Amino acid sequence: MTAGEVVSVLGVPYRIVRLLGHGKGGYSYLAEGGGRQVVLKQIHHEPCSYYTFGDKIAAEERDYALLCAAGIRVPKLIALDREAERIVKEYIEGPTAAELIEADALPDAAVTGVQRMARLAEAAGLNIDYYPTNFVLSGETLYYVDYECNPYRPEWDYAHWGRKHWK
Known about the structure:
The protein is α+β, with helices and mostly antiparallel strands. It has four helices and ten strands; from the N terminus they run ββββαββααββββα.
């Protein structure tokens, strides 16, 4: 997708503004539609040597529900188009934790926020992807903007894996 391109999700047109990022599961774009800015994620099927995927769109839907049930702040799911393998979710404006770390400007609120999410995730039997590009600080509120989660394993929790990326 390119800037200015219009794509449809369940019959609703969205104009692509710019690429936000690319991960294991898809490409995320800032888009405009319905009078607001949103994130439009296009699922991809590029190989990933360290991760096994099943039905990615079903996993996004399932993981969103698990994260919400656990009390982890995530962007609201607006639309999920199984056929086109596209997801539309709320756009959270603000810098990523990675940008703040790089600028040596990570506030205590972000660290407190990720630690709170880690406790909630573990209590729910989950791990989230603690890599700092997956977190956006909007004001004093930290959001986990990826919907990925996995069954809890200590070696992948915040204390054993995530914290080293938040320095």
